[in-house]
């Protein structure tokens, strides 16, 4: 970790609000990375009216009202992820997320990181590709906790996002169920691998609009182990102890919604000419209607599989297209649902599935001796730990717990492995 630095300082110190507490301070910081080279990845352009900025892994952090006046206080944290063709500052921009108004009286810290134009919050399989998952889980979270007074405990750590960020929400929450107690998706891409016919159409459209979107360089073959391991609707055991919220529209605008959004400025200078004026006035709205049809189908599939697995996601399904009116309705409903309500207790028995080479499963840190060639599945039942996959797995936990085993294995854990 090369540290975390304030680069733009305090953007907003407070907002006055009649009859309600003011919103807190909005800071912009940079969290550099050894996993993502900001100069080599496509980062979304500023929202309309936003100031030009250099390519960097910038993060907006909204601090709750009274944070500075309470130097001993610790606060819940919500990681809020942006969508494709957007950037870290869209959640705070006027006419978009307007988080300073939307999160007025919010009891916790809101962290809005950079995720790339189409990074999908994943470690890409393509040679030299960015490793967004490693950045978020191994660099961003520790940096935020080192700088800000984050309250410990799963209950006080939530993650949410829209569209691509909805995907990142459920995927990252599933990779760190020991850290995140609640996860909320707003029009999220929740089943990106197993409905290939529909997704291939989406990929061709996004390939035109977002040159950085290359499915196989991100996930590999659609029927491969890595794509399966990155499909939240196929790894639901990882979310068995996580509170879940999902929302999506039906591609029909609600009353008062923007029915013809055409803003593609988030694509930046690499945006496709196919979506530049005057064609954007015709093609743009059609894309936003189509995308909500896609994510609604994927959300429905995620819900059905979740409920079949015994999970109980809270749902908001109604009108809306793939635009900020719909995303913001989802966020507002998730606030009422409460990002920081108590999650289920950490389970004594659990199953964890991953395509990653290393990670954390309920306090057990693991790493393979070589890049993964198959899904790794760990299953704990009492004192027994079972694993399937390929390669040699090294596991460690608190108390001096150490284990090295060749997959597959079935071991009785030593007493020091709590």
UniProtKB/TrEMBL annotation:
Q: Which UniProt keywords apply?
A: Signal
Signal peptide per UniProt: 1-22
Which Pfam families does the record associate with it? Esterase
Query: What top-level branch of life does the organism fall under?
Result: Bacteria
Identify a single GO molecular function assigned to this protein: acyltransferase activity, transferring groups other than amino-acyl groups
- Extract the InterPro entries matched here: AB_hydrolase_fold, Esterase-like, Mycobacterial_A85_antigen
Q: What is this protein called?
A: Esterase
